[in-house]
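Journal club prep, notes for RB
We'll compare a predicted complex against what the paper describes. Inputs for the zinc ion case:
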Amino acid sequence: MLPRWVVARKLAARGQVLSGSVATGELSRLAAAVLETEAAVEVELAFAPGDEVAEIHGHIRVGVTLTCERCLEPVEIALAAAPALGLVRSDEDAAQLPARLEPCFVPTEELDLFDLVEEELLLALPIVARHQGACRGLGSLDPAAPVTAESPFRVLERLKPQR
Ligand SMILES: [Zn+2]
């Protein structure tokens, strides 16, 4: 099991690598965004002191089930994220980050790794989920329904604030 709370800058100073799993039962926002998830997320996070700021480089992976937009049947998707994060305390710090790093706000000492993992997975969710091969909707079950146009509900969902 991955620990939930860590002192991120201390781990970074040591160049520590954490790997383990997070039970998806702990990730309620992810659960609400998908039909089903595997029992656990596989996580590897490499902390590094970095040149300008402490960095975290991660690999995060979990299988989820979404609804195929063409045929409305369940479709299994491997969600994967490979974040490259720079630890910052403020928006001013974030503005100084090199372009290869995304800001990870750690204003105090402790960082919630479960929240980090969940946030990355939510960002990795596809806007439209579809079967890659054998989709029953491929031949257009309903000829009146355009299969390529994005539904207005999806567009609205995307416009909602992410955090
Ligand atoms: Zn389908």
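Talking point for the session: The first strand starts at residue 5 and ends at 7.
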